[in-house]
Amino acid sequence: MGNEVLSTEVLRHGAYICLTVPKAARARAATAAVPALAARLKLQNEFDADGGHPPDAIAFLKRIDAVAGTIADDDILHADAVVHVASGAARLVAEFCAEVTRMLASEVKPHVLRGVVRPKDYTSAAMNQFAYAHQRGQERGASMSNAFLLPLSKTPAWWAKDWMERHTYFLPRYEAGRMVSEGHALAAAAGVPCLMRRTYDYETQPAPTGAYDFVTYFECADADVPTFHDVCAALRDVKRNSEWEFVREGPCWHGRRVATWAELFT
Asked: What is the chain's Cα-based Rg?
């Protein structure tokens, strides 16, 4: 059962640009012509989103804190800010990343996490109703101010499984009519109504050495931050969700959504 039945279509391209900026350079970084670049590329600010992701989008995320994962990655762990850019056009995302890197080259080396959105391979009509039809969409930054960036990869043992076996880990497992593990879908169910979630896949899977298979991202209101951590804990509990035996996480970076580029450095 090969992967040829899985979709290779790309619906959207995205990147998270992680910036670690020395204190002495922050005032200069704040004056970089990133707003003009965003305007030229006609990017819409996700801070003002009301009803889903803008087609061509930009977002500014200011560090709150970060926690190391099993994959060491200081470029994410110590990032002061993250900029998100997304579009259906790969050219637009690539141009934005290249221009920001050029603008900041004298003092900052951006760390870019790239990925794509593909059609859902493992989602039946019933699972779509359970996990996606009523999920929390993207809202204005004032109402959902928290942002969590959490990249991860699956182990070689995961990718050695055929796609049908991998699919089973997203569902509960039963023995003699008794549920013995919840699987990914039930373990994460508490987040469906309150966490905006977005996942980028690496363009090829598994990803090459040094890259992540998936870059996951979440937004929520202050009141729902505990739910985010509860969902993460449930997914990491291999008795509840055996999928996580095959997962290796990078740092979990927590930021606050802000309206402008300059606010990242104040």
From this structure: 19
Buried-exposed string 224-242: b where 16+ CB fall within 10 A, e elsewhere: bbebbeebbebbeeeebbb
Among 166, 159, 167, smallest CA distance to 127 is for 167
User: Sign (positive/negative) of CA torsion 37, 52, 80, 91?
Assistant: negative
From 79-83, 91-95, 125-129, 214-218, the region with the lowest mean pLDDT: 125-129
H helix or E strand, kind and range, residue 59:
strand 57-67
Torsion of CA 153, 67, 83, 13, to 10 degrees: 10
How many other β-carbons are positioned within 10 Å of the β-carbon of residue 107?
12
Inter-residue contact 93 to 15 (CB < 8 Å): yes
Is the peptide bond preceding residue 110 cis, with omega within 30 degrees of 0? no
User: What CATH number labels 3-265?
Assistant: 3.30.70.3420
| 55 DSSP 8-state letter | S
Contact criterion met (CB below 8 Å) for 70 and 248: yes
Return all residues near 127 (Cβ < 8 A) that are at least 6 apart: 170, 185
Q: Sign of torsion, CA 54 58 62 68? A: positive
DSSP-derived letter for residue 90 is H
What confidence tier does 120 reach under pLDDT thresholds 50, 70, 90? Answer: confident
Residue spans of the domains in the chain: they are 3-265
Q: What dihedral do alpha carbons 56, 60, 65, 66 form, nearest 10°?
A: 30
| Overall residue count recorded for the chain in this entry | 266
pLDDT in tens, 196-231: 999 999 999 999 999 999 999 999 999 999 999 999
Q: What is the pTM assigned to this prediction?
A: 0.94
